[in-house]
Amino acid sequence: MSVEFDQKINETLADANLQLAIYGSTARLKQGRIDTVGALPDYQELRTQANAVKKHTIENLDYYLEEFERNVKARGGQVVYCKDATDVADFVLGLAKEREARLIVKSKSMTTEEVDLNERLEHHGLESVETDLGEYILQLAHERPYHIVAPALHKTRYDVAEIFTEKLKVPRETVIEKQTAIARSVLREKFLAADIGISGANFLVADSGAVVIIENEGNARLTTSAPKVHIAVAGIEKVIPRAQDLATFLKLLARSATGQMMSVYASFLAGPRRPGEVDGPDEFYVVLLDNGRTKLLPDRSKRQSLYCIRCGACLNTCPVYRKIGGHSFPWVYSGPIGAILTPQFMGVSHEPGLPFASSLCGACGEVCPVKIDIPKILLELRSDVKKSETREKQNRWEKLAFRAFAWLMTKPSLFEMAGRIGASMAPSTDGKWISSVPAAMNLPPVKRWLSQRDLPPPPGRSFRELWRRR
Amino acid sequence: MANRVALFVTCMVDQLFPKVGIAMADVLERLGYQVDFPEQQTCCGQPAFNSGYRAEARTVARHFLETFEAHERIVVPSGSCTSMVSHHYADLFEKEPETLARVHALEKRVFEFSAFLTEVAQVEDVGARFDGVVTFHDGCHALRELGIRSGPRRLLANVRGLELREMLPAEECCGFGGTFSVKFPELSGAMARTKIDAILKTGAGTVVSLDPSCLMQIQGVLSRMGSPVQTMHLAEVLASR
Amino acid sequence: MARENILHKIRTALGRSAGQDAADGPPPRIVVPEMEIEDRIHSMRTRIEALAGRTMRAANGCAAREMVAGEIAGKTSVASNSPFLRECGVTELPGVRSGITDREELRQICAVADIGITSADYVLADTGTLVMIASPAEARLISLLPPVHLAVVPKERILTGLDELFSVVPQPAEITSSMVMITGPSRTADIEQFLVRGVHGPGAIAVVVVG
Asked: What is the C-alpha to C-alpha distance for residues B12 and B214, in angstroms, rounded to an integer?
């Protein structure tokens, strides 16, 4: 793995306050999910249905994208296909210029994080304000989100007080309700003055030409209803065939994410406002982003990574994420889903340690509402990493060691002999576990084991020796 | 013959925890089984598979197939080794139809020890006695890949003198994860210590599990901490009299 | 062109050709339970109150009007153009502005009103969700800008849940540009997982069930 990855992990592990914040927050979300899915008698059927719908859609993705596009146009909206970050920025900047827009409000969208949209807009002199409370705090602090659903989970109220005082020039305020009120009042002005609202989309509904946005605060509703122009930015994989499929997905999403039966707001938005409607935007655009998603399609086994509905359940249940947190991950997506998306988008050499930063406990696959087999994909990615290393002639000692291991395991008498040699070299401790070994035995794996825990003492005889004497 | 079983003790039990294998044989023999130990056995190949070395894992898996495919029932004192054979060999040999057929023929005949007792032998009381307060750790492979949760608890409930206390949570990974434990030692250690916090809160003197690898991780940290809490494999508890 | 580029990549990856139909897929899963109206009302009220919302029951439109009068006394309110609100006489109450059809005017009034009064197109009993369909009768911002949202709904509009909603309205896009499902007051736990209500949307909601 890269030095950076190793360092970030260990820094996070060493930060006692952060450990409590990550573990505690995810504990609440994890338990919430268990309670509310426990109350759904048909939870497993819903998962099966959700998986089947996503599988079918991804396998016919071009068809559904075109149907979506037709229906968006039929409702008076426009679809803009974007290959990458530059395409998205070009489109938004072009439109902003045409409309003489200065101020943009944004609701939460991991997809826009992927393409660094805010940075690009600000570089061109536009003000683009995040309106989700957690994202707003992070924008002021110039930081990336820590968790898909709870972006500021690593910040305390004192951190927030400092950020607000420094960036908003308000008197220091540590009471959380009051901090929220400050944000509400600052952002309210932005909503009502903004020229353009940019949102993400949890689902793109093909038979309706609609986007569906899930949230608890109301900022996405304001972003998509107050300004005259609404742009929804979504990955191409977000499409689902029919509005009726929402009966399945909406039951799973909030429960899996936070343990709520439904998120506070679920907006189904189809085009600009219709004749007679009193409010709503005049213009409606949907940006369909590739940015590497098409690279995940050819692999029949791994393409299920695209089923993800971004609930965050895998993060909340992952014993590794709950220790290393979101910022240890090299890209915008963290947790188990991040561990399988990142190598597929960025190539396995981007962070070769990432698929290995898992004990393969399987908890993620168990809680995924769309049944992505994350552990299976992690195992495949590990194989991909090793194939790449073989090609690049990296990590040759490890490969040699495993070759030797495999060979040895086909030679039972040699295996037995190797065992006897190892046992004879180990210190004898009359049954107590071992804290250190002689230098000859202190190979890196042994050293690393011993850095955290003791080793078992060698038994006098192996099982097969005991068996022969039995 | 219906009362014959073969032991796959696993490389770890063979070399590091042989008493687990003996205990398992004792329990099976007391139940009337004739127990074979095919001497050609070594390993299931999991270390190579988990580390991304599939070709090397296939080499070891072929040896496993040759060693065991003639045996009617194979019993294994490990959830992870069992699921390697029953769930992952098919992935390894996806592209080799002939070997895949042999895998499919074998995979339903390989049993984790506690599942063998409760589902094949259909026994929940093996006449064991163990005085002490015990807590049970659900190893991840046994729990999630093999669906084993209540069986071991029912077996423990019938052990005379044993008091079972559940740790909360019982289902969180101990942090072993094979080579993960030495690739990410600090992280693995942190996960183990969280597990041990839960264990210590129960007041149990012994932690029982189905997987020697989990037990090695947990005992390793307990020992480093100087804790008197012990670990035992389920087979060792069930063999106790 | 990005469109052709992306669609082409997709088709190549999937082994599909341009214009090819989709294979048969799984039909939508819609399971509508049986539920008596009184049970629906009870469930809806329980769920809304569990989220710190308030609910009231009025036997008829007149009673509803009285209840609303009590809620809004001394405050400024903006009401939607819902015919049901008019029938109940809610729009005539003191302090209530309604009948607004201009977007700018509506926004200005909503920005300063204490209470936004609407009806609802449907209510979902199993989750306590108000379903608001944008139309000449119901504007978007009335249930969003003011700090309090008060909804007055006839009991006949209470459905069992999402499945029934999407049976009754399988194609919302045909009738509206916006269907919003509202479950409880606006909230966040973004700071230290500490729950705060009324972040951007209303921090208090109250629902009067009529009938």
From this structure: 11
